[in-house]
Amino acid sequence: MPPEKSKTKLRVRYSETDQMGTFYNSRALEWFEVGRTDWLRKAGIPYAEMETRGALLPLVEAHVEYHGRARYDDELEIVTNAHMAGKARMRFEIAIAHITGERVASGYTVHAIVNGEGKPIRPPAWLVDAME
Amino acid sequence: MPPEKSKTKLRVRYSETDQMGTFYNSRALEWFEVGRTDWLRKAGIPYAEMETRGALLPLVEAHVEYHGRARYDDELEIVTNAHMAGKARMRFEIAIAHITGERVASGYTVHAIVNGEGKPIRPPAWLVDAME
Amino acid sequence: MPPEKSKTKLRVRYSETDQMGTFYNSRALEWFEVGRTDWLRKAGIPYAEMETRGALLPLVEAHVEYHGRARYDDELEIVTNAHMAGKARMRFEIAIAHITGERVASGYTVHAIVNGEGKPIRPPAWLVDAME
Amino acid sequence: MPPEKSKTKLRVRYSETDQMGTFYNSRALEWFEVGRTDWLRKAGIPYAEMETRGALLPLVEAHVEYHGRARYDDELEIVTNAHMAGKARMRFEIAIAHITGERVASGYTVHAIVNGEGKPIRPPAWLVDAME
Known about the structure:
Four copies of one chain form a homotetramer.
Chain A lengths: L5 E6 L15 H16 L4 H7 L5 E8 L8 E11 L3 E10 L4 E10 L12 H6 L2
Antiparallel strand pairs in A: 1-3, 2-5, 3-4, 4-5
């Protein structure tokens, strides 16, 4: 049974701010990964375990849109969803907002599905099942 | 009433690992800051509010000892304590361990106490009170 | 006179690797910024000076495609180009490759042009000139 | 022949600033590593090659003192020196300053010397020689 949408909370760290007083732009990709990690755990397949099962998800594409500011110690919520992108790739849709609902950033990441040697593999049933 | 020791949990992010397979060494200082932030919040003086009250805590010294590995998605606990260091500085003692108790890193940070213009100030009573 | 394409070299830092042994994905956005900084400097308008002139370039969109691995201490070259995107936005095109030519990552960033208060402004002539 | 003191230049990246407008404190440890990498390369033993030779230098202790601010795009110089610390450990002394000479941060890192399995080894002659 997949988590329809996984929701994860985090607080903006001081190390994640920049001199404009908001979060530095690359942090969005780090928070996207926090969302993916949480989605996978809730789907019953923690990423660390995926390696053991012989499936890795290297990133092939990432897209971010920036909607608003987030300051140090602000509490944010990451909403993550996942589905197959064609027959061989996996796509995560991620939205980050303040807990008040005000949007911060959103986007997606596309991942190849490969084995431990980096060769593309047919998506394992347990992974496809987690997305449906 | 001060928090005798503040305890904070976090999970190691993929972005915090390095090619040795454990956390990259500078993350310890970022986690120390997570501990300080949490200590201050529990002491009733969130750092964001300190600025409003006219007191900042720039770092003047940091020390870290590395005891063991921590891998991606491992759950860690940060234990933070604070006290005055002499009459003009504040010192945080921080220990990071696995939730099983196995040690990861420990150390301290020393902070000046300054106003919005960066001038040293006498430690405000509300800050000293939080430490005792 | 604009730099048609700015070229910048950097070496992959240990802090930029992750446990897969290549660079962590968000570093691409940090390297994109290294490219932008260098493009602006070569165009005669260092970003720090732009603030003084009353123009800031907050990021509104970022896109990255990942082509290949880059390991610790590998030397990379960032090629950056810039042009207007419509009448009100600026777009940087960025490609990162090994000095052997092998591709690492490429993409673009789109920026609003705002004043010190965050209000959109008409692109200043000195900025438009730098792109042509 | 060892590099008596290795000197390395870098520019502060936007991603390395924080909302105080100076570099975030953990960047000092990342810059220390840039200094170590450069020292080792100049000593003829690039770190990547050390792994091949069967010697790794995991960090066991780090100390930083913060002396002054460094802003986005400031050019800094890292001066690095290395020597044995007792019979089994290596110590790097590192100082970071503006190119004007104004100090930014200084400190040291202490490293164990281990083989690929993480077991302490006797310091190889080629490493000891590089320090003298």
